[in-house]
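Contributing new records

If you add data, match the layout below exactly. Sequence lines come first and carry their own label; structure lines follow with theirs. Keep one chain per record. Anything else will be rejected by the validation script.
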Amino acid sequence: MDGAKGEMGPKGERGDPGVDGADGPPGEKGMPGQKGLGGIKGQKGEKGSSGEKGDRGNDGECNIDDFYPCNCDTHVVTRHSQSENLPECPAEFTSLWTGYSLVFFEGNGYGLSQDLGDAGSCMEDFQLMPFMQCSASDVCRHGVRTDKSFWLAANQGTDFMSKPMNNIDEILPHISRCRVCMGTKFIVTRHSFKNLAPECPEDFSQVWSGYSYVMVTSSSTSGGGQDLSSAGSCLENFFLPTFIECLGRGT
């Protein structure tokens, strides 16, 4: 007969490691990790070699009928009516302002002429003395007796025996009106040296025709001339006097 079960013996020593088991199946895909920090900017690479020469482009078309005398810049021209009426701008020009036709300044015997083709010859307001004399002693004077201004005249039936005028309302009808115009066409003046108007150069068209105006002089030694290529050297009307002289004393 089997005897009774004995007491549990003491714990034995740890055995040697067993042989590695076979590889288990792959685990499930893990969650995406956090975005890493930006890397350091790399050094600039060396310049690459030049590319091959491209193919020749198609030949362009050049039609002489497409030529116009215009450099596509903005040009300003002033037109003077030599009357009380305001002149119109040439075709394809727009009006900038209107005014009164100023020809020439004189102060202390020194003169300054205005090109009648430029905007400076069209003053928006009429004044007998539109300038002042200022000295090095910080003193400015207006209407000095030696000051003069010259304005293009309007044809009002000249009376050379008339007395000097000193009333603005009386003077204004004798001052020519003007208009400053802007456009893209270049304007040039041609003089015939004859009593017939010259033809325009090739590829140019006529804006207006007139009489060749060269210069103005005062009773002193001063005077001023017109650029003969400017529109200001071609006045549309001829009559005497061509200009009105205004003095610093108010006449």
